[in-house]
Every structure is written in C-alpha cells, then in structure tokens.
Amino acid sequence: MNSHSLQNTNVDTYPNILENFPLQYEMDLQNVEVKLINDDIYKSNMLTALSRMGGTKTDEATKYILKKIYTNKLAMCYSWMGGKGKKVLSTMILPKLIIDNI
Fold it and tell me: Which residues, listed in sequence order, are joined to residue 87 by a DSSP beta bridge?
C-alpha cells in the first residue's frame, strides 16, 4: 500500500501522534519505525500529521518538520547514507514519509 492510499484510509486512532516528539533517543526512533512497519493506521495518522506541518517553501517546510521530529542530539547520530560513521537514515520509513510530504 503506498503512502497516498494510506492517507485516504485515515482513521484518527492516534489523535496525539506527535505528543512524544521530537524524538530524543535512538530507542524512540526505533519504536516509531516498528509502529510504522506494523500498524497501517499509525502510519496513516503519521502521514496526516506530517502533511499538516511545514512552510510555504520546501526548505522552510523541511527545517520545520525536522525540528518537530528529531532533536539535534538524535539527528547528529544519522546521515542519509551513514557517512562518517553515522547511522543510515535512508533505509528508515519515517524519513521517507517526511520526504513524501514536502
């Protein structure tokens, strides 16, 4: 199921889906990833929440969403391809959802 069809089946089961964001710890991010993999309703609600964020320009929207999703401390542990000994972000679901909504 692609992200667009998930948005269309949105049931607001997680009305406060962003209450534990920004994510501070790697374990928090891993827990979100597991929910995104296993729970289509959670994924749909996350897509909806992300689509409600942002600015009028792509760079503004990107910065705003990233600040709301990840703390600087957590973000510094990751890079898109895992360069410089950091963890890989490109294989995770949450960053892909962010990109889909910008």
Answer: 78
